[in-house]
C-alpha cells in the first residue's frame, strides 16, 4: 500500500522509500541526504520535479478569486484597492464574506476587506461576520487593536444596520473583557433592551473562559427564562463544570441529557472528553467516547478529533495514529486538515519523517485541501529531510499557491540553509521574514550570524545583529564576541566600541576576555591609546584580569600620543584606585614604559611605589633594569646595578638580566665581564645568557669567543640548546671562519663517541664543507637529532646544505621526510629548493617548485626570480 501511495504521488517518493532514505532520525537523514547544493533531488530526479509535485497539490482546491482579492489588498493603497475590488463585480453575501475572512492570513488585509465590504451598497455585515473578524483579532492576540476597533464602532455608517448593543457586547466578550461587556449589558437592560440568543451564548462562553462562574449561573438563568435554552447552552454548562473541575457533575449532567432524550450537541461530549484527558483520565474518556458512538444524534468526528489532539498533547503519538487509522478503516473517519496538521507538526518535532510523509500522502490521497499550516509543515519536512534544493525552490515559488511562511518554517529554512552552506540564501530568507512581520528565534539569528561571521560577511552580519536588537532579541554572547572581533579586524574599532557600549548593560551581555582584548588591540592599531586604556579598565571592572603584554601594548600606544606622560600617570592613578595597590600593578607600568623606551617614566613609577610605602620586589628591579637596557642607556643601567650591589644581595636573575640586556644592546664584551663576575661569586649564568652571547659574538664574527663560550658552557655541565646549534649551523654554512676558530680552540672532535655519533665540532665542519661528510648526507637530519629536536629553521638549513652540495635528489627526499613528520614548510623552504634546482641547471624542476610555492600562497625571493 505504501508503494502504491508513492507511485500515485510521484516517482520521486517511490525512490525515497525504495532506497529507504526517509528514516526516523535527523542524523540518519544527514548521511543519506548530504547537505550540499545539487541541481537534483532524491533519486537523481530534478529538484523542480520534486517541488512541482507538491505545488500541484497545494494549488488543488484554492479559490483564485479569493487569492486575487488578497493580492489586490496587499499590493495597492486603500483607494486603489477599493476601486479594483469594485471592478471585480463581487456578489457580497454573508457566506462569501465569511469565506474570504476565513482564508485570510494577514489581519490588516482582513480588516481592509471587512471595511470595504461594509461600505458597499446593498450589503450589511451580520453578527456572524462581526464574530469572524473578532475571532481573527483574538487569534492574533491583537486585543488592543480590537478594543480600538470597538471604540470606533459607532462612527461607521454601516454599523447601525446591525443590532448595536449585541455586537458591542459580543465584541468585548470575545476580546476577553467580560467586565466591560457586563456593564454594557446592564446599561442595555436598564434601557429596556435585551440580547438575542446568539449574543447571550457568546457572553456566557466568555464568562466561562474567564472563570466568572458566579455570573455564569446568573446568565444561565436569564437564558432559560427567555426560552433560549438549547444544546449549545447544555454544552456550555458542561464546559463550566469541567472548568471548575466538577467532572462528576459534568458526567451526571451529560448522562441526564442522554437519558431524557434531550437534544445533545457533540460539543458537550467534547468538553468532558477533553477535561478527562487533561486530568490524564484517558480510560474514562475512552469509555465515554465508546458510549456515545451509538448515539445517533451526536456527530463523532469532533469527539474523535479532540481525542486525537489530547493523545498527541499527552505524548501518545503512536496511539493517536493507530486510533486514526483504525477509525478510518472501520468507520470511514477522515480527520480535518487542522488535525492532520497538528499530528504532522508533532511528528516533525520528533524527527519521525517517515510518519510525516505517510500523513502528507494520506491527505493528498483523500483530496483534503491543504492550508497554510500544511504547506509550512511540508517545507519543514523538506528541510529536515535534507532536501535543501527542494525547500528553496518551494520557497521561491510560494506566490504561485499563496504560501505564507510562519515562524517555524522560517526558522527551519534558515537553519537548514546555514547547515548547507547557503549563507546568502539564508540571509535573504531572514530579510524576507522580517519584512513580513515574522521574527525568527534567538537560535536562528545566532546560527546565521555565526555563519556570516565565519564567512567574513561583515555587512550582512551587521544587518542581522541590528535586526535582532530591533526585535529586542539578545543573541548568544559568542555571536556578539565574533561581531565585535570582526569589526575590530576591519579597523572599525569605533563601531565595535559603540556596539559594546549599547550591549554592555547589567545582566545583558557577558563578554569574554577575548572580546575586550580584540577591542584593545584594535584601538592600539588605530593609535587610540586613550580608548585602549578606557577599555582596559572596563575589562577589569567586568571581572577579567589583563596580562602583562596587554598592559604593555596599551601603555606603548598611550606614550605615542600627545601629552603622553599625563595620560600615562592618569591611567596609573585609575588603576591604583581600583583596589589596594600592590607591586604587580606598578610592575606592569614599569614594564610598559620600558618597552616604550621611556626609562625616566619607568623610574618615576618605581619611585612612586617606594614613596607609597611599598617595597619593590625582584621583578620591579629587573623591569627597571631592562627599561635602561632596552633604551641603550648603558651608563644608567650600570649605575643602577652598582647601587643594587650596595643595598642588597645580588640574585642570579639580576645578573642574567644584565648579561642578556647588554648582548641585545650589542655590548657582548661587557656582558662577558658580568659572566666572569657572576661565576666568581659562585653563580651559574642561565642558558639564555649563553644563547645571547653566542648570537651576539657570531653577529660580530668573533668566532674565537664563540668557541670559548661553548667550551665554558660544557664545563658548567650544560649542553648547547637548539637555538645555539641552529645559530652555529647557520654561520657555518656561510663561512669557514667558525670552523677555523673551533679548530684553534682544540675542541674540534671533543670526546670520542663509542656509538659513532658526530661531535658538535664535526657537525660544524661538515656544514662548513671542511670535513667530508658524504657518508652522512642522506640522514643528516637524524644525525642532528642526536643534539636537539629539529624545527623548520633547522630543516631549511639542511636543505640549503644539500642544495649547495649538488644533492638535490636527497633534498627532495628530506622535504618529503620533513612533511611526513608533521613540519609545515614555509616560504624559505620552497625558495631554497627552487633556487637550488635553478642553480644546478634543472630549470623545469625549479619551475615546478615555484608553482608549488605560489600555490601555497608564497612568492619567490628576488635571488630566485633572477633564474626565472
From TrEMBL:
Keyword Repeat included in the entry's annotation: yes
NCBIfam families named among the record's database cross-references: PPR (TIGR00756)
Record's keyword annotation contains Repeat: yes
PPR repeats: 371-405, 406-440, 512-546, 582-616, 651-685, 791-825, 826-860
Organism classification: Eukaryota, Viridiplantae, Streptophyta, Embryophyta, Tracheophyta
Record-linked Gene3D superfamilies: Tetratricopeptide repeat domain
Pfam families tied to this protein: PPR, PPR_2, PPR_3
Keywords: Repeat
Protein name: Pentatricopeptide repeat-containing protein At1g71210, mitochondrial
Source organism: Nelumbo nucifera (Sacred lotus)
Record PROSITE patterns: PPR
Amino acid at each position: 500500500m505504501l508503494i502504491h501511495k508513492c507511485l500515485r504521488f510521484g516517482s520521486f517518493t517511490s525512490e525515497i522509500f525504495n532506497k529507504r532514505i526517509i528514516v526516523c532520525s535527523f542524523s540518519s537523514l544527514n548521511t543519506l541526504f548530504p547537505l550540499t547544493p545539487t541541481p537534483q533531488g532524491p533519486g537523481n530526479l530534478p529538484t523542480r520535479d520534486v517541488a512541482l509535485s507538491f505545488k500541484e497539490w497545494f494549488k488543488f482546491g484554492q479559490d483564485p478569486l479569493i487569492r486575487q482579492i488578497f493580492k489586490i489588498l496587499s499590493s495597492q493603497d486603500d483607494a486603489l484597492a477599493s476601486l479594483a475590488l469594485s471592478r471585480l463585480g463581487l456578489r457580497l453575501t454573508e457566506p462569501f464574506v465569511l469565506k474570504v475572512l476565513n482564508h485570510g492570513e494577514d489581519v490588516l488585509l482582513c480588516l481592509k476587506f471587512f471595511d470595504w465590504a461594509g461600505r458597499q451598497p446593498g450589503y450589511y455585515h451580520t453578527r456572524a461576520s462581526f464574530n469572524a473578524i473578532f475571532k481573527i483579532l483574538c487569534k492574533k492576540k491583537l486585543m488592543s487593536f480590537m478594543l480600538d476597533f470597538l471604540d470606533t464602532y459607532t462612527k461607521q455608517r454601516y454599523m447601525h444596520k446591525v443590532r448595536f448593543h449585541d455586537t458591542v457586547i459580543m465584541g468585548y466578550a470575545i476580546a476577553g473583557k467580560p467586565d466591560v461587556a457586563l456593564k454594557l449589558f446592564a446599561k442595555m437592560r436598564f434601557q429596556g433592551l435585551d440580547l438575542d440568543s446568539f449574543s447571550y451564548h457568546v457572553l456566557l462562553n466568555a464568562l466561562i473562559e474567564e472563570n466568572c462562574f458566579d455570573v455564569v449561573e446568573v446568565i444561565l438563568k436569564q437564558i432559560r427564562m427567555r426560552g433560549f435554552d438549547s444544546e449549545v447552552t447544555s454544552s456550555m454548562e458542561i464546559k463550566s463544570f469541567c472548568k471548575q473541575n466538577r467532572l462528576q457533575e459534568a458526567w451526571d449532567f451529560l448522562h441526564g441529557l442522554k437519558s431524557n432524550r434531550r437534544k445533545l450537541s457533540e460539543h458537550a461530549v467534547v468538553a468532558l472528553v477533553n477535561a478527562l484527558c487533561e486530568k490524564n483520565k484517558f480510560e474514562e474518556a475512552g469509555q465515554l467516547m465508546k458510549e456515545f458512538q451509538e448515539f445517533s444524534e451526536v456527530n463523532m468526528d469532533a469527539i474523535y478529533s479532540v481525542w486525537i489532539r489530547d493523545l498527541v498533547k499527552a505524548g501518545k503519538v503512536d496511539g493517536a495514529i493507530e486510533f486514526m487509522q483504525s477509525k478510518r478503516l472501520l468507520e470511514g473517519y477522515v480527520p480535518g486538515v487542522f488535525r492532520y496538521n497538528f499530528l504532522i507538526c508533532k511528528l516533525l518535532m520528533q524527527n519521525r519523517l517517515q510518519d510525516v510523509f505517510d500523513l502528507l500522502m494520506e491527505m493528498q490521497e483523500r483530496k483534503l485541501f491543504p492550508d497554510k499550516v500544511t504547506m509550512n509543515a511540508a517545507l519543514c519536512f523538506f528541510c529536515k529531510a535534507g532536501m535543501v534544493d527542494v525547500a528553496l525552490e518551494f520557497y521561491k515559488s510560494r506566490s504561485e499557491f499563496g504560501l505564507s511562511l510562519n515562524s517555524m518554517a522560517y526558522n527551519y529554512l534558515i537553519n537548514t540553509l546555514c547547515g548547507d552552506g547557503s549563507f546568502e540564501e539564508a540571509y535573504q530568507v531572514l530579510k524576507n521574514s522580517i519584512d513580513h512581520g515574522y521574527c525568527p528565534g534567538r537560535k536562528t539569528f545566532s546560527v546565521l550570524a555565526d555563519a556570516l561571521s565565519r564567512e567574513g560577511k561583515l555587512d550582512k552580519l551587521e544587518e542581522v545583529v541590528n535586526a535582532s536588537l530591533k526585535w529586542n532579541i539578545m543573541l548568544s554572547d559568542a555571536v556578539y564576541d565574533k561581531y565585535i572581533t570582526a569589526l575590530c579586524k576591519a579597523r572599525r574599532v569605533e563601531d565595535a566600541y559603540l556596539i559594546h557600549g549599547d550591549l554592555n548593560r547589567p545582566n545583558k551581555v557577558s563578554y569574554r576576555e577575548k572580546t575586550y582584548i580584540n577591542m584593545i588591540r584594535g584601538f592600539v592599531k588605530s593609535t587610540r591609546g586613550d580608548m585602549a586604556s578606557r577599555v582596559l579598565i572596563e575589562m577589569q571592572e567586568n571581572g577579567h584580569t589583563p596580562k602583562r603584554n596587554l598592559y604593555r601594548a596599551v601603555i606603548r600606544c598611550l606614550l605615542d600620543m600627545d601629552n603622553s606622560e599625563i595620560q600615562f600617570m592618569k591611567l596609573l592613578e585609575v588603576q591604583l584606585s581600583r583596589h589596594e595597590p600592590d607591586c604587580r600593578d606598578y610592575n606592569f607600568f614599569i614594564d610598559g614604559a620600558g618597552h616604550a623606551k621611556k626609562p625616566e617614566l619607568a623610574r618615576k613609577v618605581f619611585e612612586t611605589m617606594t614613596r607609597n610605602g611599598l617595597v619593590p620586589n625582584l621583578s620591579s628591579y629587573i623591569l627597571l633594569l631592562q627599561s635602561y637596557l632596552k633604551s641603550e642607556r648603558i651608563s644608567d643601567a650600570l649605575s643602577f646595578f652598582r647601587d643594587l650591589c650596595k643595598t642588597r644581595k645580588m640574585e642570579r636573575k639580576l645578573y642574567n638580566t644584565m648579561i642578556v640586556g647588554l648582548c641585545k644592546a650589542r655590548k657582548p664584551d661587557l656582558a662577558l665581564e658580568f659572566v666572569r663576575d657572576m661565576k666568581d661569586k659562585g653563580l651559574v649564568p642561565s642558558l639564555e645568557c649563553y644563547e645571547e652571547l653566542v648570537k651576539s659574538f657570531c653577529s660580530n664574527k668573533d668566532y674565537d669567543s664563540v668557541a670559548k663560550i661553548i667550551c665554558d658552557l660544557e664545563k658548567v655541565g650544560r649542553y648547547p640548546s637548539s637555538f645555539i646549534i641552529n645559530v652555529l649551523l647557520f654561520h657555518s654554512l656561510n663561512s669557514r671562519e667558525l670552523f677555523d676558530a673551533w679548530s684553534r680552540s682544540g675542541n674540534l672532535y671533543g670526546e670520542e663517541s663509542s656509538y659513532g655519533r658526530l661531535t658538535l665540532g664535526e657537525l660544524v665542519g661538515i656544514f662548513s664543507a671542511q670535513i667530508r661528510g658524504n657518508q652522512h648526507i642522506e640522514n643528516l637530519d637524524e644525525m642532528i637529532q642526536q643534539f636537539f629536536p629539529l624545527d623548520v629553521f633547522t630543516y631549511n638549513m639542511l636543505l640549503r646544505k644539500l642544495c649547495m652540495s649538488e644533492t638535490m635528489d636527497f633534498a627532495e627526499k628530506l622535504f618529503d621526510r620533513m612533511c611526513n613528520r608533521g613540519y609545515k614548510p614555509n616560504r624559505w623552504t620552497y625558495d631554497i629548493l627552487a633556487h637550488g634546482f635553478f642553480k644546478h641547471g634543472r630549470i623545469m624542476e625549479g619551475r615546478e617548485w615555484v608553482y608549488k610555492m605560489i600555490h601555497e600562497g608564497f612568492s619567490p625571493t628576488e635571488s630566485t626570480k633572477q633564474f626565472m
